[in-house]
Amino acid sequence: MRCPFCAHQEDRVVDSRASREADSIRRRRECLNCERRFTTYERVEEAFPQIIKSDKSREDYDRAKLRRGLRIACIKRPISIEQIDAVVDAVECQMVALPGREVSSDWIGSAVTSELRDLDPVAYIRFASVYRAFSDIHAFLEELRGMDVGSSHAGGAGDQDARAADDNNLDNKSS
């Protein structure tokens, strides 16, 4: 393993632990050259399907790319890195279980949004606004209305009336 600090190729393992889900091993290593410590993770390399993008091009699945998109959607939200990783893990489990060797980027976006919808509605709508590329304000409002109907918000009739008035105001402004 190459040291991230001095690029020396020899190290020793100081500590090894299995993750809670037992799907990876965390290793603390110490460089034999600079004596600094760093952490590595080992996990089984899954045979992920190829991703078919909207322009019909194909690319290899990239966990870091998916994680980066989720982190952007979750900026300034009370969502931990562990929760983001759990969403990525759940989507990967679903993807590996698929019978084919290819999956559309649309499928991945849908799987992520279904995970985010339960985790955080604001992060969900942020991710969905990029993934679904809403064509206009009406499509965006329809998505928000769909969230409101499916939410477990226990607001009173006054809350619903205020939201309906806000929706009407937005509809009138966009016309």
Fold and architecture overview:
This protein has helices at residues 63-73, 81-97, 105-119, 121-131, 137-150, 157-174; strands at residues 11-18, 24-31, 37-43, 50-52, 58-59, 102-104. It is of the alpha+beta class. It folds into 2 domains: 1-44; 46-150. The strands form 2 sheets. The chain has a 3-stranded antiparallel β-sheet, with no helix packed on it. A 3-stranded mixed β-sheet has the order 5-4-6. Helix 1 crosses helix 2, helix 2 (81-97) crosses helix 3 and helix 3 runs antiparallel to helix 4 (121-131). The chain is elongated, with a radius of gyration of 22 Å. 12% of the residues are buried. The model is unreliable at 150-175 (pLDDT under 50).
Question: Which SSEs are present, and which pair or pack?
Answer:
Layout: E1 11-18, E2 24-31, E3 37-43, E4 50-52, E5 58-59, H1 63-73, H2 81-97, E6 102-104, H3 105-119, H4 121-131, H5 137-150, H6 157-174
Parallel strand pairs: 4-6
Antiparallel strand pairs: 1-2, 2-3, 4-5
Keywords: ATP-binding, DNA-binding, Metal-binding, Nucleotide-binding, Repressor, Transcription, Transcription regulation, Zinc, Zinc-finger
Cofactor: Zn(2+)
Family: Belongs to the NrdR family.
